[in-house]
Amino acid sequence: MRLVPTLLIGLIGAAILVSLGVWQVQRLAWKEGVLAEIEARIVADPVALPANPSAETDLYLPVEMSGHTGERELHVLISTRKLGPGFRIVTAFETLSGRRVLLDQGVVPDEDKDAPRAAEALTVRGNLHWPDDRDSFTPENDVEANYWYARDLDRMAAELGTEPILVVARATVPPKRSVTPLPVDTAGIPNDHLGYAVTWFGLAIVWLGMTALQLWRISRRTP
Question: Where is the protein situated, by its record's location annotation (predicted)?
């Protein structure tokens, strides 16, 4: 009878921890499905730029537009695995129909930040995006120095005289040799459910181990 309370606590605690691990495995399957849908949407056939796109209905929507870039650039600090520190090049893009939107052309290395890049006629294939680049550690953009830390669409649109709509280039015709496209993908969308599942299952094993040790100690006590 001395072992029953400890055994019950051990089994109930382990059951709770295992159930949390199973729930995280289920969440992992759900998240992988969501990411697969997003990836399929990103690379789908492009459509014309919608008249009134919104983040709720058109996030990652692939679009194609023709027109020309503006001469003024906004430089957004970024770091990539391949290039290291560099800058996104964001310009105005005026379509053949006269609309002006923001175009994220891609990234250049840090040393090429101020290299001359002329305005040019392009056909752009890319994705609509409403980026969330800012967190509690992100500095404020230094607009006067043209040193941006986050893509603030409203502020950028005001600076360049465009709609607060951003197209992130996936490819251009002709290709831009001075800028490397940095298209949207799902790499920045967190998916930590596998790690959480491993943690809960690991805690369940530890809990059972501690329970077994306590049961052994109780059984060794002299009546």
Answer: Cell membrane; Membrane
Residue range 124-170, pLDDT digits in tens: 999 999 998 888 899 999 999 999 999 999 999 999 999 999 999 99
In angstroms, the CA 161 to CA 102 distance is 9
Please count the other Cβ atoms lying within 10 Å of the Cβ belonging to residue 106: 23
Distances (CA, A) of 153 to 70, 136, 163, 181: 16, 18, 9, 19
Would you say how long the chain is, in residues? Answer: 223
Look at residues 70, 73, 48 and name the one whose alpha carbon lies nearest to residue 61: 48
- Reading the block at residue 83, the tokens are 């290039």
Cα–Cα distance, 183 to 190 (Å, whole number) = 18
Number of Cβ within 10 Å of residue 89's Cβ equals 25
Domain positions in the chain are: 4-38+201-220, 61-173
The 10s digit of each residue's pLDDT in 163-212 is: 999 999 999 999 888 899 999 988 878 889 999 999 999 999 999 999 99
pLDDT for 147 equals 94
Distance CA 45, CA 42 (A): 9
Report phi then psi at 220, rounded to 5. -85, -15
What's the pLDDT at 223?
57
Instruction: Write the CATH number of the domain with boundaries 61-173.
Output: 2.40.50
List helix spans (H) across 43-192. 55-58, 153-160
